[in-house]
Design a protein that fits this description.
two-stranded antiparallel sheet; about 350 residues; alpha/beta; five-stranded mixed sheet
């Protein structure tokens, strides 16, 4: 019994050195040292696997959240797509981990599964979740609070299709997004082993829906830490939803902010397998200089792969930051992946 065990601990701790390993942080009634087990990060993974492609390391952490028992399932002698074929089988640890975690948190996980599945497949407003699940909105609200308490829910303020700022709900972390998007729909039937073109199509879709989002998260951490190297007139917060996902003269930007003397543009190229292309920046240059001359604009351009030569040469300009995965993995930026 957990309560009896905890009650007996003070006396035991006075006689012996006790190491208590727990899933969630807890307070004890006697003096103790707390050591938090660290999730595996992209830099840690690359340090331990010198031949590993940095992009595959990014992919691995994106779909596991760095959970050690999931990361260790990967065979880094295989491609990322080949590893997916091993993970996405009925009895794999990757497959079963979510089930055990959900049962640990909830007596009836089925109730919460439908909401998490809805979020993972694009139903992110509470009204959308109510319609998708068939639950009344007040029930959805109750279940969402329980998911949040369990650490499985992420809330983000974003513009809806009408331009109004609304709360959007998502499964917290790439593992849960991956599991509910790709694994959960197969519950109740045995997954056939994936191979060939089907496996590569799955890998491509995960790149687009999961890995790109994780890459964007790292890019935003870089922005908050480093934007002052390019712009120092005022403090930028990046948390106003009205300045996020903005379209300027037909071109989408992840962030746009007008200041007195400059306009700041952030563009994250979300094709994970491709560097920032020349045609895309030429389009950006065309639409943004309609509003202000080039030298009054500050551009932050991100891509996982190396940008094309045309864009790389822009690094020499004081108003253009070109950031790829290699530079994100530089020594001074390693904490971005923590």
């Amino acid at each position: 019994d957990k309560e009896e065990f905890l009650n007996a601990l003070p006396e035991l701790a006075g006689k012996a050195y006790v190491v208590l390993i727990v899933r969630n942080q807890m307070s004890l009634s006697f003096p103790s040292d707390i050591f938090q087990m660290t999730a595996v990060t992209v830099p840690m993974l690359l340090t331990g696997n010198k031949a590993l492609d940095p992009l595959d390391a990014l992919r691995t952490i994106a779909i596991t959240d760095g959970i050690p028992e999931l990361v260790q399932l990967f065979d880094f002698q295989r491609t990322f797509a080949e590893n997916l074929g091993l993970l996405f089988t009925q009895n794999s640890t990757y497959f079963r981990y979510a089930e055990s975690e959900l049962r640990r948190h909830f007596r009836t996980p089925e109730t919460y599964n439908i909401l998490l599945y809805g979020m993972a497949t694009g139903h992110n407003r509470i009204s959308q979740l109510a319609e998708f699940s068939g639950f009344p909105q007040n029930k959805c609200d109750k279940y969402l609070k329980a998911l949040d308490k369990a650490g499985l829910l992420e809330t983000v303020q974003r513009n809806d299709t009408a331009g109004h700022v609304r709360t959007h709900y998502y499964p917290k972390g790439g593992y849960w997004k991956t599991w509910f998007r790709y694994v959960f729909p197969s519950q109740g039937c045995r997954l056939k082993p994936l191979e060939g073109d089907s496996l590569q199509l799955l890998a491509n879709d995960i790149d687009h829906s999961i890995v790109a989002e994780y890459f964007k998260t790292v890019c935003w951490k870089w922005m908050r830490k480093n934007y002052g190297d390019y712009y120092w007139d005022e403090i930028l917060r990046f948390d106003d939803p009205k300045q996020q996902n903005v379209t300027v003269n037909g071109v989408h930007f992840d962030y746009v902010q007008e200041t007195k003397d400059h306009t700041i543009y952030v563009k994250i190229w979300d094709d994970i397998g491709e560097g920032f292309p020349k045609a895309e920046f030429q389009k950006i240059e065309t639409v943004t200089t309609k509003n202000r001359p080039f030298y009054e604009n500050i551009y932050f351009l991100f891509s996982a792969g190396r940008a094309c030569n045309y864009v790389e040469q822009l690094r020499n300009l004081d108003t253009v930051a070109v950031v790829n995965l290699k530079s994100l993995l530089g020594q001074k930026n390693k904490e971005l992946f923590g």
